[in-house]
Amino acid sequence: MAQFRKALEVTDGDYLLVGVMNDQDCVKYKRKPVMSETERYEAVANCAFVNEVVRDAPEKITEELLIKHRIDVVAAGEEYEDINALVAAGKYDYYSVPRSKKMLKFTSRTPGISTSDIIKRIHSRHDLHPVAAASAERAGAKKEN
Prior knowledge:
Layout: H1 2-11, E1 17-20, H2 23-29, H3 37-45, E2 52-55, H4 63-68, E3 74-77, H5 83-88, H6 96-100, E4 104-107, H7 115-128, H8 130-144
Parallel strand pairs: 1-2, 3-4
């Protein structure tokens, strides 16, 4: 939720519109989401900093999206700031349209707070939990039989 606050800060805005991708597009982009799209829509909509959620947001910000929602400024994570590094790494520039219009601002990430980090924490804690370990052991014994 800190990213939403930071987005408002870097854009000097008073109205925050947040795009949330659907499950199908998330799978194509990266992985199956931990939360369903409905859960993600609700979680974002209930954040104090968010005024409106764009459901089924596209992976790439388009001219049509900017016009339709009357978007003046786009905030993105700082990992998208260096276009040369993105190109060198073979990554796609999802923000090429707002970048070309000089309407792209960048926010710093909160260390340790990303979907990948949270998934890693869940896995490491699951492996250490005695009930989970016993359950995994029983599941392994069933496969052997």
